[in-house]
Amino acid sequence: MPTTYGADAKITGSLEVDGDIILGTGDDDINLDSNTLFIDADNDRVGIGTASPDYTLDVAGDIGVDQYIYHNGDADTLISFTDDKIVFKAGNLAFTTLEKKGSAPHEITLNDGANNIDFVVKGNGSNAGNPGMKFDASNNRLGINGVGNPSYELDVAGDIGLSEYIYHKGDDDTFIRFQDDDITIKAGNVSFINITEDDSQDKIAFNEGRADLDFIVRSPNESLAVYLNAGNEVFHINHGESNFKTKIHSLNGEVITVNDSGLILNEDGHATNDFRVESDNNTHMLFVDAGNDKLGVVASDPEATLSIGSGKHIITVDQDIRYAHSGDNTVIVEISGVKIPAYAIISRVVAIVKTASNLSTHLVNVQMSPTSGTSADSSISSGTELLGASMGMMSGQISSDSSSPEDVDLVNDPKEVWYVPGLTKNGSSDQYLYVCNAGTGNGTTNSSAGTLTIIVEYYGMD
């Protein structure tokens, strides 16, 4: 039987017990050595260094352990202390290791056992959401700003800010450099691209360092679609001469086109895409007036199809001839946009059958009149014949099959030529060119074919 003491017991010396000691009745606190050890019986708590334990074991001071602090019933979940090293394990996986090395740098290591342990940092769900950062151990990838399954070694769902350089690892002269309003891209210390925002002039510069650096643009079928040969100071387009088209546009369509057919100017046929060649002292050494179908040589405002300087002009036009009339000298068509200025001297007139008429008889002549706008089948007003049977032998008119003046026969084979080399002086009025019916044998049936090429050469000035 154990010995039981009364309400109070005082031992002033040593107490040696061989067996169990039962203190209190379940609601009596025990205080040893002024709170060195205190048992709170009412709350089933033990205090060390405190008489008011807040927890099952409450230590008001330091705790020393040789090595391990275990989770009860879970022997491989623990904190291990060794000299200058702490390891946190759960399920025998080393999640975190803190180690003071013999010399700096010291280490905090996550997943020290190289297990498949992801590292996750969560934010408050703002920006792109959680996780704020995640390291995917199975793929060695890091995701930032809501990237829970990173697809790349560094996968950022948002912006990246850096101070200045992005380097190619192990190749320090290959980098992208960021400065205020400036980006430089170098490879092998050659400045390939420089982008600058400047208040006076923004720019993108290639080869800013002026190295022997070729510039190449490739297409699916041309390896050198655009090619700057820096060493030779030569710029090529379609250097490989493949089936590649080059176009230069203005506000009015294609101005210059280069394709497998050669060089074409103003392929869209726009009236304002003129062509001009300058020399040292003349702004219009060669000038094509696209809107008026005229060519000037040393002429800024050509009067005719071809104007040489301000005085010599050649009119060339392909004129469809469709009307026929039984009356002599009745108008078939006025040649549009053509005028012989007053006092001009006509040096030659030529007519060539380009397409034969489908009528059985279709004789015409070329005349000029001071009146513009005379309609078809009407008699020409004050007409002066420039080419036809009425010219007479003094004109020197010949044709491909006759040396005598004759009207132009549109029914003849194409390529037959009528030519008048004699001089005709214009009067004091501007004159307009017409093709008229010659004689009375054409009948009144209009043709559906027949084209006459007409050439008039004159000297004068509008």
Question: What is the compact description of this entry?
Answer:
With 462 residues, the chain is mainly beta. The protein has strands at 30-32, 37-40, 45-48, 57-59, 68-71, 74-82, 85-90, 93-99, 107-110, 119-121, 133-136, 141-144, 154-156, 165-168, 171-179, 182-187, 190-196, 203-206, 215-217, 226-229, 234-237, 246-250, 253-259, 262-265, 275-277, 286-289, 294-297, 306-308, 312-320, 331-340, 345-355, 363-369, 384-387, 398-399, 408-409, 417-420, 424-425, 431-437, 451-459.
Q: Which key terms come to mind for this protein?
A:
462 residues; mainly beta; 10-stranded mixed sheet; 5-stranded antiparallel sheet; 39 strands
How many strand elements?
Answer: 39
Number of helices: 0
Distance between the termini: 150 Å
CATH topology value of the domain at 312-459: Jelly Rolls
CATH architecture of the domain at 312-459: Sandwich
> Which percent range fits the helix content?
under 10%
Model regions low in confidence, pLDDT < 50 over at least 5 residues: none
Biggest β-sheet strands, sense, barrel: 10 strands, mixed
Q: What's the overall average pLDDT, rounded?
A: 91
How large, in whole angstroms, is the Cα Rg? 53 Å
Overall shape: rod-shaped
**What structural class should be given to the helix and strand makeup?**
mainly beta
Measured by DSSP, the beta-strand proportion falls in 35-45%
CATH class of the domain at 312-459: Mainly Beta
